[in-house]
Specification:
The complex is a heterodimer of chains A (about 375) and B (about 300). Chain A has about 375 residues and is mostly helical. Chain A has 14 helices and four strands. In chain A, β2 and β3 form a beta hairpin. Classes of the chains: A mainly alpha (about 375), B alpha/beta (about 300).
């Protein structure tokens, strides 16, 4: 297999990956090599913030894969993100060992506090990184598989499917809020100390996590490109545009959907797992339906069915969020709402659509074949 | 080239045996063996799933009944199509033409009756993709092509072959497959539009593309719903030519309203009325049938 094949013709994606590579070189240098007093020094706080944006970007790519190319508007992808995050959180909790407030060598603090005597069965194995890493993809993947199998086989589509994805994440949020679930209730999992033996507060670890997020984004992006440029990707777009026709041609539409959907959920799980050690906490709030909706807004703003648009949208909106919530804390939700209205009215194909228009105007050439993405919005 | 019925049957049997994969054959045989009304022959050989047209007809529809909320859309319908035949079905609106196609392709399940493909394959037990795979292709009334895909990609997606998820993910076009696509492009006359998105084609071109997609599926039986609706006269002639060229190699059922068009292609015509067959025969016989004149031609 030729590794560059999936990127052919994807100028936006190549530019995005080039920028990502540059950032991945510059940021660690500015943080670790430039002395703290210098104007060029990048604080560890900023590095972590950027790392967080990258995990959001990966999540947005996962959503764009199912929304832009398969036509499934998922309003529950936050659930897969949070499940991946919880799996990582459980590993980090077990790494604390006897350094917790109560000093119990096995039980995390919240279990001691709840007067539990034994580790619940589902916490076993999470002291090993490989096991946790497996669960990070398996748990969201399995949930997506079962959910998708039931939904797609019954041919639930469109807005009804969106509503049940929303219900899924809401139900999980309520479940995880309960202390008896054994995931720390509304406080969630926090107070992490180290990962793979490295101190989570150390600059070096922070930079490594940032780099891991950048790498995951690049690989995840490439994998999604590989899928959408394969014949399966063309079948997926056909399902998006004319589902019954695909069925009469002889494809099992439910299985096509199930495969892409499950892959997307696994990607979201990986994003969540990289997110948690950087922000230092995972709690049921991550399952909140609002998160999942916000994430769809990132993709819409960036431009559906382009993949790189999702990255651009996620980073820009989250940068805006950081800026606004710092400068005008009350204004953020109005800004987000306003942005969404403006984009829907003026840029129905998002930022990616705008870039494409500008490029076409400059090169003054519109004879080329229309990309499937072009008319998708 | 003229084709006799025997030759057609032989051709169908010889070059067009199913390309089911082994696993799929086993699965279909297993499903067949799980039928509750067939307890004893618990292992049915794969051969049972092969198209058997040795008695002539490729499609048997018998005593079919469907009703929607009390309205009898199909009423005791009996309908047979011979292998290699080109059959036209006419009838006023609401006569049950589209419903019949829905049943044959697995979209609608009947209340009672049977539908067999060849003598052995029970269509009522198969799903839409399975029916597509055993060799029944359908063109819809409204042209449905994949608008955001190019003409080439539309044909590529429709091409017969392994359509399971993972083989599709790793699929690459072979030279032979490219040749096949080129061949079909020639037949439907869209060679110079290969790279255009299907959404940019004219109405007539979309209809032809859809027929091309049917041909790529390489079906034994083609169901074609109103192929010339909204076409100009030249386009109609071209379509008639196209359908006539399929006769013999494929069995074709055409549902159409346009009488001139039907006259130009039909050898045998079936008239449906209120969900059952009113008359069947050559165009002249049918047109002179007083019952047909009464309900349909209304003259």
């Amino acid at each position: 297999m030729r590794p560059f094949e999936p990127m052919r013709g994807d100028t936006g994606g190549l530019v995005m990956l080039a920028v990502l590579a540059a950032v991945a070189v510059v940021v660690p240098v500015l943080n670790l090599a430039v002395p703290e007093g210098s104007a060029w020094h990048l604080s560890t706080f900023t590095v972590t913030l950027l790392g967080k944006y990258l995990t959001y970007a990966l999540l947005a790519v996962a959503v764009d894969l199912v929304w832009g190319y398969l036509g499934i508007l998922s309003l529950g992808h936050g659930a897969f993100f949070a499940l991946g995050g919880y799996a990582m959180g459980m590993y980090l909790m077990r790494q604390i060992g006897d350094r917790g407030v109560y000093g119990d060598p096995i039980l995390p603090d919240f279990m001691v506090f709840l007067n539990w005597k034994e580790l619940p069965w589902f916490w076993h194995g999470f002291d090993m990184f490989w096991f946790a890493a497996l669960m990070i993809v398996l748990v969201p993947g399995l949930l997506a598989f079962v959910f998708g199998w039931l939904a797609f086989r019954s041919r639930v589509t469109g807005v009804y499917l969106s509503i049940i994805t929303q219900a899924l994440t809401y139900a999980l949020m309520l479940a995880f809020f309960r202390n008896e679930m054994g995931f720390g209730g509304n406080n969630g999992l926090t107070d992490f100390k180290d990962i793979l033996g490295f101190d989570l507060q150390a600059d070096g670890t922070r930079v490594a996590l940032f780099l891991a997020s950048a790498l995951a984004l690049a690989l995840g992006y490439w994998a999604c490109r590989w899928i959408v440029t394969s014949k399966l990707g063309r079948v997926a777009v056909a399902v998006r545009d004319a589902e019954p026709r695909v069925r009469f041609i002889g494809y099992r539409v439910d299985r096509v959907k199930l495969a892409v959907w499950t892959f997307s959920a696994m990607l979201a799980g990986i994003a969540g797992a990289l997110y948690v050690p950087q922000v230092g906490i995972i709690n049921p709030g991550e399952f909140s339906p609002l998160n999942s909706i916000e994430l769809v807004v990132w993709v819409a703003i960036g431009g559906r069915a382009t993949l790189y648009g999702a990255v651009v949208g996620a980073v820009l909106v989250n940068y805006g969020k950081t800026y606004f919530t710092g400068a005008f804390p009350e204004a953020w939700l109005f800004a987000l709402g306003g942005l969404f209205v403006l984009v829907t009215l003026l840029l129905p194909q998002g930022i990616a659509g705008l870039l494409r228009q500008l490029r076409r105007r400059r090169s003054d050439d519109d004879g080329g074949p229309v990309q499937p993405a072009e008319a998708a919005a | 080239m003229t084709w006799s019925a025997d030759q057609s049957i032989e051709a169908l049997r010889r070059d067009r045996a199913f390309d089911f994969s082994g696993a799929q054959k086993r699965w279909l045989a297993f499903r067949e063996s799980m039928r509750r009304d067939r307890q004893f022959d618990f292992m049915i050989s794969w051969k049972e799933l092969e198209l058997d047209v040795s008695h002539g007809p490729i499609l048997y529809v018998e005593d079919l009944n469907v009703s929607f909320d009390g309205f009898k859309a199909i009423n005791n319908l009996n309908f047979y199509v011979d292998a290699g035949e080109l059959r036209c079905v006419i009838g006023p609106n609401g006569a049950g033409k589209t419903t019949m196609m829905d049943i044959i392709t697995g979209k609608t399940r009947p209340d009672s009756g049977s539908a067999y493909f060849g003598q052995k394959i029970d269509l009522l037990r198969l799903s839409e993709p399975e029916i597509a795979e055993i060799g029944i292709g359908r063109k819809f009334q409204k042209p449905t092509v994949f608008e955001h895909h190019s003409v080439f990609e539309n044909l590529e997606l429709a091409m017969a072959g392994d359509k399971r998820v993972f083989p599709t993910l790793f699929a690459h076009l072979s030279g032979q497959q490219r040749d096949r696509i080129d061949e079909v492009l020639d037949i439907i006359g869209l060679k110079d539009q290969v790279q255009r998105p299907a959404g940019a084609l004219s109405h007539g071109q979309k209809q032809w593309l859809e027929i091309g997609m049917l041909l790529m599926q390489d079906p034994h039986l083609l169901l074609v719903d109103e192929p010339v609706a909204g076409m100009t006269h030249q386009e109609m002639d071209r379509t008639a030519e196209l359908l006539l060229s399929l006769e013999g190699r494929h069995s074709v059922v055409v549902v159409e309203h346009d009488m001139d068009f039907v006259r130009s292609i039909a050898k045998r015509v079936t008239v449906l009325h209120q969900g059952s067959v009113l008359a069947e025969g050559s165009m002249d016989e049918v047109q002179n049938d007083p019952r047909v004149v009464e309900v349909y031609l209304g003259e």
